[in-house]
Recover the amino acids of this structure.
């Protein structure tokens, strides 16, 4: 790792998935652009990264995802049409996002799993620690630091890979990567094992990984050596296990709420939650 890079400043957003659970809406609209109230999921994620002090957003997209690039850009026609009108304030938030950070993009040509999507982002990240946000895991910590801000602060202390975890019902273990380990501080676990989508009887604990990571750059070489796992995909869980075996991964029981906006139920729950916040 370069000596002059002391902290996390880049955030990677894997955004190439098809969003099949939201068909037919996602036939033409990227799932990351589905709005909770008036704001796309991906914008919530970018704002969380900015709140954590990150200023470089690296987005891994795919075919049919041009709306993502257009959203984080100036629309001169729209700006011209509403300039000086009572509607101009609707663009305040996104203008602030666009001017607060830089965006870069690359494509994942084939869908080979989250590990592969992260590897596709290597050219945008380089040899430095970085965050990963999965936009369909929408997080909020009302009145406190965002989940990613909490994790960046933790990275400053431990300087290793970090996964955000939460307790789940054991019957849901086959939907998540599940970790096991030893608690070294309250809410912080040194990971010794992790399994991708185990059946409840095989799950090592009820602590599931959600879509927030901080990864050290050696993860790229590890992913390159990682064979396809569950579902024939290259799993980030398998790559992280290689780091964990060397004591280089901690799991963090974050403060805040998380909504699984990759499911219709979670999407509706998030919409109701944020609606009630602004009422």
């Amino acid at each position: 790792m370069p000596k002059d890079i002391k902290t996390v400043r880049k955030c990677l957003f894997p955004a190439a998935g098809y969003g099949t659970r939201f068909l037919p809406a996602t036939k033409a609209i990227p799932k990351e652009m589905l709005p909770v109230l008036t704001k796309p999921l991906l914008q919530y994620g970018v704002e969380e990264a900015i709140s954590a002090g990150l200023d470089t957003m690296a987005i891994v997209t795919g075919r049919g995802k041009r709306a993502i690039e257009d959203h984080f850009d100036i629309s001169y026609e729209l700006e011209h049409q509403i300039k000086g009108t009572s509607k101009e304030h609707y663009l305040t938030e996104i203008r602030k996002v666009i001017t607060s950070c830089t965006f870069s993009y690359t494509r994942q040509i084939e869908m080979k799993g989250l590990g592969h999507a992260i590897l596709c982002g290597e050219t945008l990240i380089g040899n430095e620690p970085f965050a990963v946000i999965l936009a369909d895991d929408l997080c909020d910590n009302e009145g406190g630091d965002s989940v990613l801000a909490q994790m960046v602060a933790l990275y400053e202390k431990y300087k290793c890979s970090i996964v955000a975890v939460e307790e789940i019902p054991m019957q849901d273990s086959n939907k998540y990567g599940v970790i096991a380990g030893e608690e070294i501080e309250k809410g912080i676990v040194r990971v010794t094992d992790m399994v991708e989508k185990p059946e409840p009887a095989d799950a090592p604990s009820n602590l599931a990984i959600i879509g927030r990571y901080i990864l050290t750059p050696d993860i790229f070489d590890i992913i390159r050596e990682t064979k396809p796992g569950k579902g024939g995909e290259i799993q980030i869980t398998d790559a992280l296990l290689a780091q964990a075996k060397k004591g280089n991964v901690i799991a963090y029981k974050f403060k805040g709420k998380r909504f699984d906006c990759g499911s219709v139920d979670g999407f509706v729950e998030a919409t109701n939650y944020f609606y009630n916040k602004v009422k």
Summary: The first helix runs from residue 41 to 51. The mean pLDDT is 92. The longest strand covers residues 177-185.
